[in-house]
Amino acid sequence: MFYLFKKETNLAFTNEQALNKEIKIIECPRDAMQGIRDFIPTQNKVSYIQALLRVGFDTIDFGSFVSPKAIPQMQDTASVLEQLDLSQTTSKLLSIIANTQGAVTAASYEQIQYLGFPFSISENFQMRNTHKTIAESLITLEEILEVADKKKKEVVTYLSMGFGNPYGDPWNIEIVAEWTEKLAGMGVKILSLSDTVGTSTPEVITYLFSHLIPKYPKIEFGAHLHTTPDTWFEKIDAAAKAGCTRFDGAIQGFGGCPMATDKLTGNMPTEKLISYFTANKKYTGLNSLSFESAYNEASKLFGKFH
After folding, report:
1. How many angstroms separate the CA atoms of 95 and 17, rounded?
2. CB 255 within 8 A of CB 35
3. Closest residue by Cα to residue 162 from 251, 114, 222
4. Coil, strand or helix: which one is 179?
């Protein structure tokens, strides 16, 4: 079994490195919208994402190429993409895919830089999410990495259930470490640990990032954290102090995992991320006026469709 304790001595070095790195905030309107039952008209999506593109986020997780039966809300992702004006933005686009066919489709669009693949270390959740076993999903990930390489795209692998498992499958820190080692060996370069149903604690967040980041310097680790209104600070603080510089968020915390039992559990609110890093004098590269405008657009959109 692979144990993390051997890398304790690198923790201070990693934190010192992280202090000099720009914070990447990935805004996730796709995650915010995908669970809404009423179909959001394509033009509404385009207008909202266009507002987000003006803010200066590193990446916009804007849509997904998955089965319309599985995620009806995202069936118009191609139409949304065609209508976006990307001429005045520095933000890159990420699309979620669940299989090789989706990867081929997403990779065919020049505008998309990142293919996001959810890989769960929970057998139950992987079946729920992609209708594949973990073993089958490993084969799919290999194929996706090949597609991305040929098309000069990058793959963001989301390690679902990275901080805990509510389905009764075995979970511990060593299991997360073992899967990280396996994915690193496959060539995964961006690995986002995902707090799928809000079960993470500051202790586990700190432990995982402070040990994995120095062990795998060629991997960019991200934090996709779900939170309740009163736990956001401790989660961001733990990840940031452990050296994480890549954070997913959704304005006002809209969206999140529909399997979460606590209705207050949602995506990490982007405004909380900005507040934290501004207070800690970390550069995020965001335009405050454009963010305020996007925040207001979010209120209108999700006030109407929820």
Report:
1. 29
2. yes
3. 222
4. helix
| DSSP three-state, residue 190 | strand
Q: Token digits for 135?
A: 């073993």
CB 119 within 8 A of CB 108: no
Q: What is the 3-state secondary structure (H, E, C) of 282-297?
A: CCCCCCHHHHHHHHHH
Separation CA 30–CA 38 (nearest Å): 14
Dmax (CA) for the chain in angstroms is 52
Chain segment 241-269, per-residue pLDDT in tens: 999 999 999 999 999 755 444 556 789 99
Which pLDDT does position 251 carry in this prediction?
Answer: 97
- Sorted by sequence, the CB contacts under 8 Å of residue 157 that are 6+ apart come out as 116, 117, 119, 141, 183, 188, 190, 191, 192
Contact criterion met (CB below 8 Å) for 98 and 109? no
Contact predicate 25/270, CB 8 Å:
yes
**Does residue 55 sit in helix, strand or coil?**
coil
Q: State how far the Cα of 271 lies from the Cα of 13, in Å rounded to an integer.
A: 29
Is the dihedral angle over the CA atoms 136, 141, 146, 147 positive or is it negative?
positive
244 CB contacts (<8 Å, ≥6 apart)?
18, 209, 213, 221, 222, 223
- What predicted TM-score, i.e. pTM, was given to this entire model? 0.90
Pairing outcome for strands 226-227 and 266-267: antiparallel
pLDDT digits (tens, 9 = 90+) for 47-100: 999 999 999 999 999 999 999 998 999 999 999 999 999 999 999 999 999 999
Between CA 193 and CA 287, with CA 251 as vertex, the angle to 5 degrees is 105
Q: Which strand (E) or helix (H) includes residue 211? A: helix 202-215
